[in-house]
Design brief:
single chain; 264 residues; alpha/beta; Rossmann fold; 10 helices; 44% helix; globular
């Protein structure tokens, strides 16, 4: 039995409301696809695909795309997005820890802010590399520990610690840790930076949107609203104090890291 089964069930439920944030993740999806060198005819897997912004972007380039996510509500939105775009994508509900695909099935494996939430990174990356053919490209976007989104997740984790043994998602934004996790399985490892600009009228507007749509934050706020309003007020004040450092001209700056490598 998966020791993180209940944890993943909570993740699945929490991320079901993510769809309103897809507008902000759509431009970075194009950056990831471009830097991955996606070409027509390639077999591409989008891991933790969410509402399909990366998958649809790759499919519009002529790639044969498969998308996988843990949350059925997001896959429903992804199917709608691919239908509107007029592209065919093979959608699957599933877990990165046990990908339902054959060895070396894909030319490229991608993930945008997704696989990083798997509690066992060594299992997730082993599966992503298993289904990638030798000479294929693995690329993903993640949140560096010292910037806004990772700091926000660290704040949430202080209020609701993850289960013992679960790795913190922002570790995937640290090049030294990424290098260690990929190890000798890859070559030509390259890191590059990106920036997501999220419109907001105030840091309070940004927080409110996050509370409604971002899985871990939504679950925390629901819990505190029912059990400890004073602690909820403290959390919100701490969140705003972090967000104000990245807020200017009606946008919140969210810096991210792109990792790209070739499987040996």
């Amino acid at each position: 039995m998966d020791p993180f089964e209940s944890f993943k069930a909570a993740q699945k439920q929490g991320w079901a409301h993510f769809a309103p944030l897809e507008a902000f993740t759509t431009p970075p999806a194009a950056v990831l696809v471009k830097r991955s060198g996606i070409r027509a005819g390639q077999r591409v897997l989008d891991v933790a695909c969410g509402t399909g912004v990366v998958a649809v972007t790759a499919a519009r380039r002529g790639a044969q795309v498969t998308g996988l996510d843990l949350t059925p509500e997001l896959l429903e939105r992804a199917r709608e997005n691919s239908k509107i775009a007029g592209v065919e994508i093979d959608w699957h509900e599933g877990d990165v820890a046990k990908l339902p695909f054959a060895d070396a099935a894909f030319d490229t494996v991608l993930s945008q802010y997704g696989h990083m939430f798997a509690p066992r990174p060594e299992v997730a990356i082993a599966e992503m590399l298993r289904v990638l053919k030798p000479g294929g490209t693995i690329a993903f976007s993640t949140w560096p520990p010292d910037f806004f989104v990772a700091r926000m997740f660290a704040l949430v984790a202080r209020y609701v610690p993850p289960p013992p043994g679960a790795a913190p998602p922002p570790a995937w934004g640290d090049p030294s840790i990424v290098r260690q996790r990929l190890g000798a399985a890859v070559k030509d490892l390259v890191f590059s930076a990106g920036t997501m600009l999220v419109p907001a009228l105030s840091v309070q507007h940004h927080r409110t949107n996050t509370e409604k749509s971002a899985g871990p934050t939504r679950k925390l706020v629901e819990t505190l609203a029912a059990t400890d309003l004073l602690k909820l007020q403290t959390f919100r004040a701490e969140y705003d104090a972090i967000a104000v450092e990245y807020f200017d001209e009606n946008v919140v700056r969210q810096d991210y890291l792109i990792t790209r490598a070739t499987k040996i």
